[in-house]
Specification:
141 residues, 66% helix, mainly alpha, two-stranded antiparallel sheet, single chain
Length: 141
């Protein structure tokens, strides 16, 4: 069964409730400043050589649209990056609540070996569907 559990931190465990929100917030500040100053990317080398979009193609355009709060366009450019951004936002909110409550129990995903295999298959299927979308949308854009 795939479930969330609350447990205390193990000795020496990385403090994910501190590290990832700081990375997320720092990236957003950098992206906002970068796109406000008119920054652009060099383009995708994989796409330039093969003509086939990679999984990251459209990520810069997605980030630019997110910095302008145009969520639908951001999703269309790169649903994977948009989903990661949404997960980062949710994790940051959780972490803020975690620190404000001064909770000592951390929220973690608990999987057994069978469920881990199922989750990996779902992840690979999602990546494949994402890549098909990239091939369709970015080549017709």
């Amino acid at each position: 069964m795939i479930r969330f559990v609350r447990r205390p931190a193990f000795p020496g465990e990385t403090n994910h409730e501190l590290v990832w929100p700081l990375v997320f917030i720092s990236f957003n500040i950098f992206a906002f400043i970068f796109f406000t100053l008119g920054g652009t990317s060099l383009g995708c080398l994989f796409f330039n050589f093969t003509g086939i979009p990679c999984l990251g193609c459209g990520a810069t355009r997605c980030a630019r649209e997110l910095s302008h709060l145009d969520f639908w366009s951001a999703f269309k450019y790169n649903p994977g990056v948009f989903t990661l951004y949404l997960m980062g936002f949710i994790w940051t909110i959780y972490s803020a609540v975690f620190w404000l409550r001064r909770d000592h129990l951390r929220l973690r995903l608990s999987l057994n070996e069978n469920n881990r295999s199922v989750l990996l298959k779902i992840l690979f299927l999602a990546l494949f569907v994402h890549w098909l979308w990239q091939c369709y949308y970015l080549r017709n854009k």
